[in-house]
Amino acid sequence: MNFDLTAEQHMIRKLMRDFAEGEVAPDADERDRTKQFPKEIFSKMAELQLMGLPFPEKFGGGGSDTISFAITVEELSRVCASTGITYSAHISLGCAPIYLFGTEEQKQKYLIPLCQGESLGAFGLTEPNAGSDAGGTKTKAVKEGNEWVISGSKCFITNASYAKFLALTAITGNMGNTREITAFIVPTDAPGFTVHDQYIKMGLHSSNTTELVLDQVRIPEHEVLGEIGKGFKQFLITLDGGRIGIGAMAVGIAQGAYELALQYARERVQFGQSLSKFQVIQHKLADMHMQIELARTMVYKAAWLKDQGRKFTKEASMCKLYASEIAMNVCNQAVQIHGGWGYMHDYKVERFFRDVKLTEIGEGTSEIQRNIIAREIGC
């Protein structure tokens, strides 16, 4: 059992640590205040050929692996979770379903522009009445001649304002008591397609979270993604990979909050000595460090299994569940160590605390992850 990163993975970590510190961190607080999307950052990442990192070079990707993707998400999230989730969604939700289920023609047409950073990737699954119960989809697609006509709505969709096209699900028929759900690739500038960016969120202020409204949107019949009726299964497979991304995001947020708390504890003097000399603070920091290390190991294991072509559904849910819950605890303790200053925006941990909550919700809530794990162990 080898826990060492490869030379390439070490290189990715150094590259992303330098990029995050130099390009992402300096204006992260200001972007949080103004809710400005970090478009320039992703243009620079495209120049570094990072926007298709884990996909084959023939599609414009970096030919790297899932562990490198997790490292990239972690390093971005360590300084700015909004940037981390934008990148994670682009790769694992936007690019992945086209790579996994698209035809060669669709990959040439859609995956290459995504990998080259010409468009951000997005994924249309969640609906106002179909969150954890994604099978409750109500968006419908009706075949008319050689076209599909799609009507319905999606909510909480990341990156759609900056996506030229996206994959989404719609009902195409019924199979007994179950709905037949199919995936489609839909251009966001199609007549009848509207993207609304008007949510007021607790955190992740500089990420793009949208509502999609489709009113009789017509697309050619060849824009079905994968097989008719297999859309829901395809998106479940996609979500397994997405959970590795959210797990990595949670690890990154936790690492950033822990580092801020450790620095503050060393510098803050109370009762004649630094906070880091008090055993109660030492124990908090020790627990935070331990939890982050365990979570990171779980994320990398799930990523390794995926790279080996082995089943990783259980491990993806486990790493996402554990990493998100310890990240919430780490951010909570980081605020506590900062005391009153931790409640103030200028000390950054306040932003981390608001941002981290989404990791317990996105890509399936903690409750859904426990359901998946229970199913996988035979309950």
Automatic annotation (TrEMBL):
Keyword Oxidoreductase: yes
Catalyzed chemical reaction(s): a 2,3-saturated acyl-CoA + A = a 2,3-dehydroacyl-CoA + AH2
Protein name (database record): Alkylation response protein AidB-like acyl-CoA dehydrogenase
Superkingdom, natural source: Bacteria
Protein keywords: FAD, Flavoprotein, Oxidoreductase
GO molecular function: acyl-CoA dehydrogenase activity; flavin adenine dinucleotide binding
Residue ranges of domain Acyl-CoA dehydrogenase/oxidase N-terminal in the record: 6-118
Family label: Belongs to the acyl-CoA dehydrogenase family.
Named cofactor requirement(s): FAD
UniProt cross-references to PROSITE patterns, sorted A to Z: ACYL_COA_DH_1, ACYL_COA_DH_2
Gene3D superfamilies the UniProt entry points to: Acyl-CoA dehydrogenase/oxidase, N-terminal domain (1.10.540.10), Butyryl-CoA Dehydrogenase, subunit A, domain 2 (2.40.110.10), Butyryl-CoA Dehydrogenase, subunit A, domain 3 (1.20.140.10)
Record's keyword annotation contains Flavoprotein: yes
Species: Hazenella coriacea
PANTHER family from the UniProt entry: ACYL-COA DEHYDROGENASE, ISOVALERYL-COA DEHYDROGENASE, MITOCHONDRIAL-RELATED
Acyl-CoA oxidase/dehydrogenase middle domain: residues covered: 122-217
Lineage per the UniProt record: Bacteria, Bacillati, Bacillota, Bacilli, Bacillales
Acyl-CoA dehydrogenase/oxidase C-terminal domain segment(s): 229-377
